[in-house]
Amino acid sequence: MLLAVQVLRSAIVQDFIPVLTGTFFEEIYKFQRQILRVKDRDEFPMILVGNKADLELQRQVTQEEGQQLARQLKVTYMEASAKIRMNVDQAFHELVRVIRKFQEQECPPSPEPTRKEKDNSGCHCVIV
């Protein structure tokens, strides 16, 4: 997970300032493929967040384009603005929800042992 975060920081700083619509979408696709390759998976928990949603007049990507991209990537799409605190916490909570759902699918919780199994299991304490 740390590697993905480092890749994310690097990509944001180097590649997405300024954002240009055509190359932006291509970079997002490449970025997702890079994460999946590094994680050696076909899917991994991600969300797509359009930032600076408060700058409506300077918008370079429409909300519909963002939603369409998210559908193609099979991820959740949200728009946020740190300046006016719009959807910042919600984006974080959505990412946590997506991560937890992914983890549950990867390793579902084991069923609770029956009372009989509990009785037969003995004590798991170690006295030193």
From TrEMBL:
Entry's Gene Ontology cellular component terms: membrane
UniProt cross-references to InterPro entries, sorted A to Z: P-loop_NTPase (IPR027417), Small_GTPase (IPR001806), Small_GTPase_Ras-type (IPR020849)
SMART domains, sorted: RAB (SM00175), RAS (SM00173)
GO process terms (BP): signal transduction
GO molecular function, one term: GTPase activity
Transmembrane portions of the chain: none
Assigned keywords, A-Z: Cell membrane, GTP-binding, Membrane, Nucleotide-binding
Pfam families associated with the record: Ras (PF00071)
The protein's name in its UniProt record: RAS related 2
